[in-house]
Amino acid sequence: MSAPQGLPRRPLSFTAGETVVTRAWKYNGQAHWVVPGLALGSDEHGEWIYQPAGSFIARPGMAFFARSDAVTLSPASGEWLATFHSGEDRNGLLLYIDLSTAIGWAPLGPRGHELHSIDMDLDVVERAGRGIYLDDEDEFEEHREAFGYPDELTSAIAAEAQDLLARVAARQAPFDGAALSRFDQGRALLDAASAR
Known about the structure:
The chain is an alpha+beta fold. It has helices at residues 137-147, 151-169, 180-195, and strands at residues 19-26, 31-43, 46-51, 56-59, 62-65, 70-75, 80-85, 93-107, 112-127, 131-135. The model has no long low-confidence stretch (mean pLDDT 94).
């Protein structure tokens, strides 16, 4: 199995509380990360997904239970997915942006969604005490050769990474703290579900 192609960039409907399974693939068709979550809603930035602490996150050869809450934004445009962390991560992780392509949505059963993307290796990361930096440039170069990334895609992803570094450093929306209210929204959804 490999990443589905030609999926719509935004879901047809997106109702708070619905299940969202985020599936990342590598450019050579291999499965990468699978992360479960709950739909929070859409706004001008894109679709927001809550990933509560304790969620089972897996990829081939590795799996773990999330130690802290996270909120992912699938942007309305751009070649990236951003995951905002609650600040409770023991390594000080605050923001992790996966440079990605072929971002698209598919239905998952009667009330859910799958968010698919192809991970393009480069990551823009922010950690408390370390600041903002670009990660996995060596992996990007290695896979560019091994997987045959087209030159146009390689250039576009590299340029997008530099743009994101500048936007995060300047605290431009949606990297201006807008995700903080989404953590409360996600926790409220969980509380409401457990009260039923």
